[in-house]
Design brief:
Helix content: over 70%
Oligomer: single chain
Order of helices and strands: HHHHHHHHHHHHHH
Shape: flat
CATH topology of the largest domain: MetI-like fold
Radius of gyration: 26 Å
Strand content: under 5%
CATH class of the largest domain: Mainly Alpha
Distance between the termini: 52 Å
Largest sheet: none
Number of helices: 14
CATH architecture of the largest domain: Orthogonal Bundle
């Protein structure tokens, strides 16, 4: 018995050691891959702190010496960064609110309510995803011009309050994983459909809603074509258009250009690090039930 127990302990210890080694190798590979993909950002950050003479050195200088911190205030003072940031946040926040409310309501109707032709209408909604923006760009511009909305944020914000097919699909898949017994119990207690949506489904869907918020915010923050088409007043420019204007005016000042690009990129990185756990949880849980 003692011999068998010792063999079992050695075998268990050997398997545990192999698991640790395997996890260690996996972590090393993932960290190395992550470092490889972060190289462009490191280079951008390094270039933003260099002098003009160090930028074109061969071999490349990764750690600037001396560090030119003044590149950041100089870059942000050349164009009205705070004004563009305010416009971008206004645009992003309203689009996030509109998309989250409208898409979750439509997704609730497709996932929790029984009505005729529900699946057919859902397929029709999904089919609109096959239409690229370039196809609808001109008809939408003509429509918004006749409404007198060109030159304002209305063409960019109002459509967000009519739902997004991708987010409707994403939320529908998540809502279908919530047990229907909760809705049935609420109906027995006299709760309406909207009450079930607001008091049961939405509180239980925070991970999926966080994914919608993050995707929508990132998409609107990086949106260049939409504001370029509809915004014609420089005071209403977003950071994406502002950066393009900066490139056109200061193309040869690479240190200042990299400093401005870094200043625009860092808020997105900070947002992701604060929301990565909820974001990954939402991605993992969404779509478990077809």
């Amino acid at each position: 018995m003692q011999v068998n127990s010792k063999k079992g302990f050695v075998l268990f210890k050997s398997k545990s050691f192999q698991n640790r080694v395997g996890k260690g190798i996996t972590h090393i590979i993932l960290i190395s891959s992550g470092f490889f993909f972060m190289l462009p950002f490191f280079w951008m950050l390094s270039t933003s702190l260099k002098s003009d003479l160090q930028i074109f050195n061969i071999p490349p200088v990764w750690i600037p010496n001396p560090v030119i911190w003044s590149n950041f205030p100089r870059a942000l003072m050349i164009f009205p960064f705070l004004t563009y940031l305010k416009n971008t946040l206004f645009y992003c926040i309203l689009c996030v609110i509109g998309t989250m409310i409208s898409s979750s309501l439509v997704a609730y109707a497709f996932s929790r309510m029984e009505w005729k032709w529900r699946n057919a209408v859902f397929i029709l909604v999904l089919s609109t995803m096959m239409l690229p923006f370039q196809v609808t760009m001109i008809p939408l511009f003509i429509l918004f011009r006749r409404l007198g909305w060109v030159g304002t944020f209305k063409p960019l914000i109002v459509p967000a309050f009519f739902g997004s097919p991708f987010f409707i699909f994403l939320l529908r898949q998540f809502f279908m994983t919530i047990p229907k017994e909760l809705s049935d119990a609420a109906k027995i207690d006299g709760c309406s459909e909207f009450g079930i949506y607001a008091r049961i489904i939405i509180p239980l869907s925070k991970p999926a809603l966080a994914v919608v918020v993050l995707f929508e915010f990132l998409g609107r923050w990086n949106d260049f074509l939409g504001p370029l088409i509809y915004i014609n007043d420089e005071l209403n420019y977003t950071v994406a258009i502002g950066l393009q204007q900066f490139v056109g005016q200061h193309e040869s000042e690479w240190a200042l250009l990299m400093a401005a690009s870094t200043a625009i990129t860092i808020p997105i990185i900070i947002l992701f690090f604060f929301t990565q756990r909820t974001f990954i949880q939402g991605i993992a849980l969404t779509g478990l039930k077809g």
